[in-house]
Specification:
206 residues; alpha/beta; Rossmann fold; nine-stranded mixed beta sheet; three-stranded mixed beta sheet; 5 helices; 29% helix; globular
Length: 206
């Protein structure tokens, strides 16, 4: 019988290949819709310190959303792997911030200020109907998020084609608070995910 680890490993390979095969025109259109939802559905981010990420291998590119949030008053930060503890730290980012190549050949800010985030835009390889995220398997986000007090607002982002019935969550997995795809904004509750209008989301997260 296949273990949950084996299932996830196979699913990661499958989803990554599918993501890299997405047509450029589709990725651009879907990304614009996600950016619009982030910009207008979460005014709470305008007064927050927000952790985001640098896009990797066909992920949704959050940089337009990051620039929009900067203009609205947000403090932005990018994650950096603290290899000794296998955690992420967040360092302040702005458009002209000095950058260098970090772990996994992903750009990170070059020794900018460490900040404590109170919201995180989380990249997802896939997600399920209960609001759990399938990542790359390193566990960095789960371990880091659990250690942040108070818990930050978690907004997972990916494309709708990566919605799964179940990722078979384990005790260490952390559910998102919201998930944003080009189909809209999903609110996560104990009953699972449910679509919510941008206006309603904004009223709940202002």
């Amino acid at each position: 019988m296949e273990t949950w680890q084996e299932w996830r490993k196979k699913k990661r390979i499958e989803l990554l290949a599918r993501r890299e095969a997405v047509a450029s025109s589709d990725r651009i259109q879907w990304s614009m819709e996600i950016t619009n939802s982030l910009d207008h559905g979460f005014p709470i981010l305008w007064k927050s310190t927000v952790g985001s990420y640098w896009p990797y291998r066909g992920e949704y590119d959050p940089r337009p959303a990051m620039n929009a949030l900067l203009k609205r008053g947000s403090v932005l930060a990018l994650p950096e792997v603290e290899s000794e503890r296998k955690l992420l730290c967040f360092r302040r980012w702005w458009e002209e911030a000095p950058m260098r190549m970090g772990a996994y050949n992903i750009p990170v800010t070059d020794n900018t200020e460490l900040v404590v985030v109170n919201a995180v835009i989380v990249p997802m390889l896939g997600f399920d109907m209960q609001g759990y995220r399938l990542g790359y398997g390193g566990g960095y986000y789960d371990r880091t998020i659990i250690g942040i007090n108070p818990s930050p607002l978690l907004i997972g982002v990916t494309f709708e084609i990566f919605r799964l019935d179940n990722i078979y969550p384990r005790p260490h997995d952390v559910a998102m608070d919201f998930i944003v795809t080009e189909a809209g904004i999903y609110k996560v509750s104990k009953q699972g995910i449910s679509i919510i209008s941008t206006n309603k989301c904004a009223s709940e997260n202002s």
